[in-house]
Write a structure and sequence with these properties.
The protein is 77% helix and 0% strand. It has 123 residues and is an all-alpha fold.
Length: 123
């Protein structure tokens, strides 16, 4: 049975779980099933990293006698991390596609700049 007042670590992990779930939901619904997933934004990546690092600090100071609230929050955190792990390959693929698109765009702009430079020389 959960205690009436969770420990500070359990409360902190609970709040982090809520933020992680929200971030994961935004990553999960980035595109429809027929479309390739959208790449994660820098803000989303920074948020995920921040939450993971924050919990990493708390995991180092976990008490040996864990109450049920803390065990439940740790279990929920584990589920969130497993969900993130499942999303990582599609996030990686989306980032690689975005990189390729940006490289194509850069080549197009460089070509246009070269054309403009040469056309000025012929005038």
């Amino acid at each position: 049975m959960p205690t009436l007042f969770p420990t500070p670590v359990a409360q902190n992990i609970h709040e982090t779980n809520a933020r992680l779930r929200s971030l994961l939901d935004t990553l999960d619904t980035g595109a429809g099933p027929a479309q390739a997933p959208l790449p994660a934004t820098p803000q989303q990546m920074a948020g995920l990293l921040s939450e993971l690092m924050r919990v990493g600090e708390w995991l180092r100071i976990l008490p040996e006698d864990r109450d049920t609230d803390l065990e439940e929050e740790l279990s929920e955190y584990r589920k969130n991390v497993e969900c993130l792990r499942a999303l990582l390959p599609s996030m990686h693929a989306a980032l690689l596609r975005e990189r390729a698109r940006l490289e194509q765009e850069r080549a197009r702009v460089e070509g246009a700049a070269e054309w403009a430079r040469r056309s000025r020389q012929t005038l």
